[in-house]
Design brief:
142 residues; mainly alpha; 5 helices; 0% strand; elongated
Length: 142
């Protein structure tokens, strides 16, 4: 049966807040994974730009003794070349974790705010939260 207008508004706020928190959790997880996986690229490109005479030209000792303009250019090129495979690895790790933790199932439909009697979770599923109407034989990833 339909909810009253005030109850519907309250449930809409609760579901909207929960969906926003799940979105922020996914975004935080993605940021952490991409930062860790792309750290070699970040470091290599940073040192390449820091020691190049036409960009930043740092006065650090390693820039004067080890890295000249040619080696700085090589570091910059190497950093951008290894970025593509590392992006693929980072996305694969994120998708694997999102699948294992079932984070994408945590988004709740707004129909729970409109009608009484909707269930938040199905019993027996391993997810920390689960969507209304999801079935065990219907999966996003096989």
């Amino acid at each position: 049966e339909p909810r009253s207008p005030w109850c519907c508004l309250a449930w809409t706020l609760v579901i909207g807040t929960m969906n926003s928190l799940v979105f922020l959790l996914n975004l935080l997880l993605m940021f952490v994974i991409f930062t860790i996986v792309l750290l070699p690229t970040i470091v290599v490109v940073y040192f390449g730009f820091q020691c190049h005479s036409q960009v930043l030209h740092s006065s650090a000792r390693y820039c004067k003794s080890i890295l000249d303009d040619n080696s700085s250019s090589a570091l910059i090129i190497l950093g951008f070349v290894i970025m593509s495979p590392l992006l693929v690895v980072a996305m694969a790790i994120y998708c694997s974790l999102a699948r294992r933790l079932q984070l994408l199932v945590c988004f709740q439909p707004y129909s729970l705010a409109l009608y009484k009697g909707g269930r938040w979770c199905h019993r027996g599923e391993g997810a920390p939260c689960c969507a209304r109407g999801s079935h065990t034989h219907l999966k996003a990833w096989v």
